[in-house]
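Q: Could you predict the 3D structure of F-box domain-containing protein?
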Amino acid sequence: MDDELSIRDISMNFDDDDTIIRTVSDYGDDAVLTRLPSHQWKEIIDFLTVEDFKALRLTGSKALHNLTDPLFTSHLQLRMDKASFFFDGNNYSEQEARRWLSKRTRLVINDGNANISTRRVAYMVQHGFLDSVTDIIAANCHCHSEVLQRLAMLPNVKSLKILDSGAPSDDEDDEGEQSSIASLDGNLDELETIIEVIGNMTSLTSLDIEFDTVVSGSRLTFLRRLVNLKYLRLRGFDLSEGISNMAGLIKLETLHLCHGNFYSSPNDDVNEKDLMFLVGLQHITRLHLEGFDCLSGIGMSPFVSNSITDLVLKHCEESSEDCLSSIGRMTKLKSLHMINSECDDAPIFGSEDLHHLNTLSELKALSLFYVFEEPGDLSCLKGLTALEILNLAYEYPMEDEELEEVIIPLLSTFPHLRKLRIFSPDGMAYSLNNGSLEIEFSSYSFGDLVDLH
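A: Sure. Here are the predicted structure tokens for F-box domain-containing protein:
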């Protein structure tokens, strides 16, 4: 009876990972733990994250010595670059490999230097070892081109994320930088081969590609076959061509497009008229456009629908007032982020331009980085009655007396405002409160990732 009570005590804490670890590790004599059958351990561990599971194994309890059994880790991701049965020269029985791969849903490759055996992967794919896999993440993907070509044959993959790095670092000399650039150019063949094979993965609903080199948008023809996609993120493509290949992705709900990448901006701008090919994508709720210069009402018009709830325009230089007019027709927007840096040729909007946004009565988060000059211009936005979070970026840090001049009109304009973030290139990070309003100050420069929610 005591043992049953103890087991039940552990089970009652499934909603609190820390409590599970603490409860389990508190049994100093291991009397109860040694009597827990495997299926009950499995029920406990299924509620733990990777880090929580590691902490549990490090508690030192003698009863936990069997937690290396694949039974207990089948719900966690598997590192292909760490699992020895994916490498030549390691003798594993098929039965043992199947035990490790049974019910495994996520495969990860992080190490570009890992010499994963293409032959072994091909055998496992062909004989159903990996049929349970639904998610694949591969970094330095050009190093694993042949392996990814085999994994692309898996029948049930729903989500694929591939990344490829190798751009010059800040501390490289000219010779090293030239070598790195040459290496990036040499990766193109492998990257183009990989994305062509992705076109065969017709079960995909989520695709995320991020390259540090720039691939021609003409290579995006593979997208025409991925008609089940609901999430698409592309970074590292020259989108001055190729956008038309997305026209048939009518199930898309999230679309994230970056013209070029952090390291390189293509010579030719995106022709905003090409965005008209996307007019049929009526289910998009989240839209992120980066590096799309000279946007006007034409470029934004395909997305003027009641479905868009989240819009990000990042480093989109020289946008026109007509762009704001189109955004103002996206009346279901919950968040709008116009992000530029001090290096961008950002458009400057006055109150006569910003007033187009007053129709966004459901907007809860707004970011305006380097797109207005006078804080007083924001007083025209009285239609944003639901706004709770406002993120602003200025060229210079704000002085205390200037802050007071900004806060008072903001509070009267946005009655539900609870958080104000103010960014500048050399700003110090600190926070303060003004009544119920939380104010955060921070620095922001090109390439920084910042929390806007």
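Q: Anything worth pointing out?
A: The chain is about 25% helix and 20% strand.
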